[in-house]
Design a protein that fits this description.
Low-confidence stretches: 43-50, 423-436
Number of helices: 27
Largest sheet: 8 strands, mixed
Radius of gyration: 32 Å
Oligomer: single chain
Shape: flat
Structural class: alpha/beta
Strand order of the largest sheet: 1-2-3-4-5-6-8-7
Mean pLDDT: 89
Length: about 850
């Protein structure tokens, strides 16, 4: 393992950027100066009581590469050391003594907490499970840092010293605390991007056809509320804005600089901005060298949007700003939009404009070297002017953090994502059935579904959902269709069923009331056809009657104008139930914010997304972990087999350690051993060859079933030996077991997304029918239920079986995957399911050395 870790950038609570890195021998003098500068009340007892020479010797040992038990992290801003945190491993390799020092001027900005988070993450990755510390009782600030961490802790007073113990396992309370601190810091830093008090456009050309001119003109025409500057060495004024020859020549350091200069000039201009004190950059230019650009960004602690982006805008009354080169200004609204594509941003903006809807803010992230959707989720979660968040993402930098952030935002504000890059062209070859399922689109969709993100496949569908979200969410999936055109009503009913909605069974009272309102020619069953002669007042009364039926959760109205009248004017909202209107060829809003869709299929699809959101909001979110897990035994299996496919007996041992119902078996190496195993089972057996490169045993001729009698067992063993020769490592003998259904349950692990749990049809059906569902571990009970019923054949497969047993298997497999990151692939196939339980009949597991990853560690995006 490398002694020195790569430096990372992170945010303090005031939004400023610091570098966190491991300190080495070259930092000893700086670290000593920091210790010596502290007043007595800010020091640990052991530093306070040492002589200057003892302190110097101790610090130099801490940063020495010859002391592998010592680790020191520092937080630096533009090369100046603000604080340091260290640990020294004790005689117990899972325990370390921790110390922390922060310069007095920075003690209210979260330096100590940030350093402790990074130190704890590093220690966990190196096998340390507990920190201990001794703090002077007078050092209240330091005690507060420890107790606010969110980790499990104990404190024991002892005279002038308090003994502190911190458990390093990242429990939910700790992750929530980290997320809260990160959000506070991120919002503070993004203020310079989305609420700047001053902006400079660098490269503001006099040519109306240039990007720089367009950005500056949009800021002027949009009445930017702050101070606006232009930088152009060849002009005195552009768009009636005074020009300056360089960033250095500006009368003040602008909070935000928008760079519209040639790509090769961008790094130099960014360096000039950093030296001048600019806090954030939006780089419009494309073709920029990312490494060269990030050098000044890192060195001067700036935030960065782009490069290769449309820009940023906000419609906040406090700061009106359109720093983009879009053709038209942003309409004020309540939708926050972040997109990697400038073209998508313009398309969404124009479609919303056509409907009279607007944005609270727009950030085009482009190549997203720094600011990404994760940052914007934190911003819009706290922004009172944003009611809906819309995303267009082509890639994820940290999908596990995205999942946690999106889930928190979606509890309060709908989050909608336009799916992109959904093709299977990038599907990787995989050795197991499970891994072949784990394509990027499957994994992404599982993340979105569990995080409560509403997914759409294009701009029109996005707009439909945005409009629908103006209505209440439905209490269920039962829909009534009311229209004056019977054929369109039938199409609406068909579309509802296709989208997972149900046609409501209207009550006798509702049918009777409709019969009294409508002519005898009308159809008063769902879908209700009022006939073309209905007027808008009668249509509105019918809507009230249908909406009052307890069996109806939502209503879709379908109206067309005729020579006899147009009942569309009778469409109105209902209390507590959504109403979506259909008027052919028309998209917009009717009275009471009732959304109007151009065709029945679009209305049904939007209503289904509302129903999905309602169910997600109501679902329990607590993660479920099984208590009867022997983690030490499971870890022992991994330690003995650090690479490759586990032997079958070790697979059984690991699965049993997690309480999974495993059939088991005996790994035999001779004919006599195999015969003895069959004799002990006293029943017909299955015999499975264990041979090099034999992964799919049935396809490779490595399985024989229903073998009984000593002679048959010996003959099967010899047949394997003849077929596989020197590749044969043994034969796994199992008692025969059969059940009513066979399932596949598996795990595939992605470095970014983490473990994906897959289930679906098992046995020979796995190869014949691609029918599976997937979810990201760990799982809540609701996640497990969704997974269990998420494939097409689930209803038939689970009928008359023990669903509780299947759910338990899924939860245990998810716990196994989350606890053992070394497992890269796991296939349980088949999982035999009966009316009384489940049984793992066959399984295989592949492991690899895991690189410690902490997806929730507070750090800014790294360059590619």
């Amino acid at each position: 393992m490398d002694r020195q870790l790569a430096p990372v950038r992170a945010l303090l609570t005031d939004g400023s950027v610091v570098e966190v890195r491991e300190l080495g021998p070259g930092d000893a003098t700086t670290l000593l100066d920091l210790h010596r500068s502290l007043p007595v009340e800010d020091k640990y007892l052991r530093f306070f009581s040492t002589s200057p020479r003892q302190l110097e010797d101790f610090v130099r040992r801490m940063v020495s590469p010859d002391e592998p038990r010592h680790v020191v992290l520092g937080a630096l801003r533009e090369g100046r050391l603000l604080g340091a945190a260290s640990y020294v491993v004790t005689d117990d390799p899972e325990c370390a003594e921790v110390a922390l020092v922060v310069t007095h001027a920075e003690q209210a900005h979260g330096v100590g907490t940030l350093l402790l988070e990074h130190l704890a993450s590093l220690a966990r990755g190196r096998g340390v499970r507990k920190f201990t510390a001794e703090v002077l009782t007078m050092n209240f600030r330091m005690l507060r840092v420890f107790t606010d961490m969110g980790l499990v802790w104990t404190v024991v007073p002892d005279g002038d010293v308090v003994h502190v113990d911190l458990g390093l396992e990242p429990c939910e309370r700790y992750l929530d605390a980290v997320a809260e601190r990160e959000a506070k810091a991120d919002v503070a830093s993004l203020t310079h991007v989305l609420r700047p008090g001053s902006i400079a456009v660098v490269g503001a050309s006099r040519s109306p056809g240039s990007v720089g001119h367009a950005v500056l003109r949009n800021l002027v025409d949009g009445n930017f509320t702050g101070d606006l500057y232009a930088v152009n060495p060849h002009a005195t004024s552009v768009a009636n804005v005074d020009c300056y020859s360089s960033v250095t020549a500006l009368p003040e350091a602008p909070e935000l600089a928008v760079l519209c200069v040639p790509a090769k000039a961008v790094p130099g201009v960014a360096e000039e901005c950093g030296r001048r004190g600019v806090r954030a950059l939006a780089v419009i230019s494309s073709g920029v060298d990312p490494d060269e650009l990030m050098k000044p960004v890192r060195a001067h602690g700036m935030r960065l949007v782009g490069p290769n982006c449309l820009g940023v805008s906000t419609s906040s009354p406090a700061v009106r700003m359109n720093a983009t080169f879009a053709a038209r200004d942003t309409i004020a609204g309540d939708i926050g939009l972040v997109t990697q594509s400038g073209g998508v941003a313009i398309a969404v903006q124009e479609e919303l404009r056509r409907l009279g809807l607007g944005l609270s803010g727009l950030v085009s992230t482009g190549d997203k070297l720094d600011i990404s959707s994760n940052d914007l989720l934190m911003w819009w979660k706290e922004d009172p002017e944003t009611r809906v968040v819309a995303l267009y993402l082509e890639s994820f930098g940290n999908p596990r953090k995205f999942s946690r952030l999106a889930r928190e935002v979606a509890k309060h504000k709908p989050v909608i994502a336009i799916r992109a890059a959904s093709s299977e062209a990038g599907q990787r070859a995989a050795a197991s059935h499970t891994a072949s399922t784990a394509t990027p689109s499957v994994t992404r969709d599982a993340l979105f579904r569990q995080a409560g993100v509403i997914t759409v496949d294009g701009v029109p569908e996005l707009v439909d959902v945005v409009l629908a979200l103006r209505q209440p969410v439905p209490g269920g999936r039962s829909v009534a269709v009311l229209g004056n055109a019977g054929g369109l009503g039938v199409l609406a009913a068909d579309a509802c069923v296709r989208n997972g909605l149900r046609m409501a069974e209207l009550s006798a009272a509702t049918v009777d009331s409709l019969s009294r309102l409508l002519s005898p020619a009308a159809s008063v069953q769902n879908p209700v056809d009022t006939t073309a002669v209905v007027d808008e007042e009668t249509f509105g009364r019918c809507l009230d009657v249908v909406g009052a039926d307890p069996a109806v959760d939502a209503v879709i109205t379908v109206t067309v104008p005729t020579a006899l009248g147009d009942p569309t004017g009778g469409v109105h909202g209902l209390t507590g139930k959504p109403v979506l209107a259909v008027r052919t060829g028309q998209t917009g809003r009717l009275a009471d914010e009732v959304p109007c869709c151009a065709e029945p299929a679009r209305a049904a699809a939007a209503l289904a997304r509302l129903a999905d959101r309602a169910e997600w909001l109501d679902r329990p979110r607590e993660l479920t972990h099984q208590a009867d897990v022997d983690l030490r035994t499971a870890q022992g299996v991994i330690a003995r087999n650090p690479e490759g496919w586990l032997p079958p007996d070790e697979v059984v041992r690991l699965l049993k350690a997690f309480g999974l119902p495993v059939l088991g078996g005996t790994l035999t190496t001779t004919e006599e051993h195999a015969v003895a195993a069959q004799r002990a089972y006293d029943c017909p057996v299955a015999m499975k060859a264990v041979a090099e490169d034999l992964l799919h045993k049935s396809k490779g001729g490595g399985v024989v079933l229903g073998i009984a009698g000593e002679a048959a067992v010996a003959e099967a063993f010899r047949a394997f030996r003849d077929r596989f020769g020197d590749r044969l490592r043994g034969v796994f003998v199992q008692p025969m077991e059969s059940g009513e259904r066979e399932l596949l349950v598996g795990v595939a692990t992605d470095d970014k997304f983490g473990p994906l749990v897959v289930t679906g049809l098992g046995g020979v059906d796995t190869d014949l029918i691609d029918d599976r569902a997937a979810a990201l571990a760990p799982l809540s009970t609701a996640d497990a239920d969704d997974l269990m019923r998420g494939y097409r054949a689930a209803g038939a497969v689970l009928a008359a079986t023990d669903e509780a047993a299947v759910r338990d298997v899924l939860l245990r497999v998810a716990d196994l995957a989350a606890a053992l990151p070394e497992i890269t692939e796991l296939d349980i196939n088949p999982l035999v399911v009966t009316s009384t339980g489940c049984l793992v009949v066959d399984a295989r597991i592949r492991v690899a050395r895991a690189r410690p990853i902490d997806p929730f560690l507070r750090q800014l995006r790294r360059t590619r």
